Amino acid sequence: MRDIAQNHLMAMLAYISMEEPVSFTAGDIRTERVRALSALRSIEKEEVGSMVVRGQYSRGMRSGKKIPGYREERNVDPNSNTETYVAAKLFIDNDRWKGMPFYLRTGKRLKSSVVQIDIQFANPQSLIFREYKFPREYHANTLSINIQPKEGITFRFLAKAPGLLMELKPVNMDFLYKRSFKRDIVDSYDKLLIDSIRGDQTLFATGPGFKSTWTLATKIMKGWEALPAPQFPNYSPFSWGPKEADELLQRDGRHWLLH
């Protein structure tokens, strides 16, 4: 919570939810980013249990090799309740996003090392193809921004399968940076180092933004303190995390796209 969730996840949330800046300059981008984070809805102590999931990985096996649980790692307290996984349901209370949930998750020892933002478009109000065969979970189009390991963008939608029958199948339209530009992409830390030398603060967090994210993170952690001790460990290594994270979305009739 203190590291990845409070820092990196919130940065991506800000970029996705911010309004268009007046200009493509560090100051104007920062202004809109802070404005989005300032509109984050607070999570009260009694809401933490239903809106935030925490987890810790257990021991396991991979390719015939024993994998230690977090509490068995070197220099870790064998009774540690430090979370290695967090999932949350957040809201941004402004005119554009009011009532729209944002689901975030991050963790260690998950099934795949991937950084991805999935934007699911609203379901159509009328399904003109409802009498035809198609997967029920693909009502809405999805735009996936792939940050790691393969930088690019994927648009997922339904298309008619070849043939005489009216049958719809989910397909992907892919854009990959390396395939399109055929050059290596600058490492993210190299980019930040170069920007700092140039004095470009576009990608750097600022005090007001930190204040908003830390206020939210602090409330979540205080809510955890008021709850019974977690039953750790609660997810297997190289899985997608604890079952409670799936239930977090299932209560809203949704599911994680990577599962």
UniProtKB/TrEMBL annotation:
GO cellular component: cytosol
One Pfam short name: G6PD_C
GO biological process: glucose metabolic process; pentose-phosphate shunt, oxidative branch
Superkingdom assignment: Bacteria
Parts of the chain that traverse the membrane: none
Pathway noted in the entry: Carbohydrate degradation
Alphabetic keyword roster: Carbohydrate metabolism, NADP, Oxidoreductase
Glucose-6-phosphate dehydrogenase C-terminal domain: residues covered: 1-256
InterPro entries registered for this protein in UniProt: G6P_DH (IPR001282), G6P_DH_C (IPR022675)
Gene3D superfamilies: Dihydrodipicolinate Reductase, domain 2
Annotated GO MF terms: glucose-6-phosphate dehydrogenase activity; NADP binding
Keyword NADP carried by entry: yes
Protein name stated in the entry: Glucose-6-phosphate dehydrogenase C-terminal domain-containing protein
Record organism: Candidatus Gottesmanbacteria bacterium CG_4_10_14_0_8_um_filter_37_24
Taxonomic lineage from the root: Bacteria, Candidatus Gottesmaniibacteriota
